[in-house]
Amino acid sequence: MGKFVIKKTPSGAFNFSLYAVNKEKIAVSSQVYTTKGACKKGMESIAKHAVKCINEDRIEDQTLKTPVAKTCPKFEVYFDKAGLYRYRLIASNGESIAMSEEGYKSKSGVMNGIKSVSVNAVDAEIVDETLEK
Q1: What residues does each domain of the chain span?
Q2: Is 0.90 surpassed by the pTM of this model?
């Protein structure tokens, strides 16, 4: 079981990171949320959409010469400015909700990252680091 960690940004907004069982950060929120409730809905959306994308082969590989367009929700695989593979998860409404924390050197690596998100987001523990201790 993975773990979502909610943090507050310097501006007072909220974002999250998803960690795999091995404590490696595998995804971060693509946006900041004005409320903690909205942030939690974003995390729920990742769990729902990531599994659907895997089960229905909704992975759009934009690194190909002629990518096959997929409908949302979907994962998009692309090259970053450094030439590394990355992914982002696009929700049903077309908004990016999560993306890889770091680039991958190989396509198999990025695909493993996508699979890890779909496994670790489901029933993930939520750690709220915004609560005062």
Answers
A1: 3-128
A2: yes
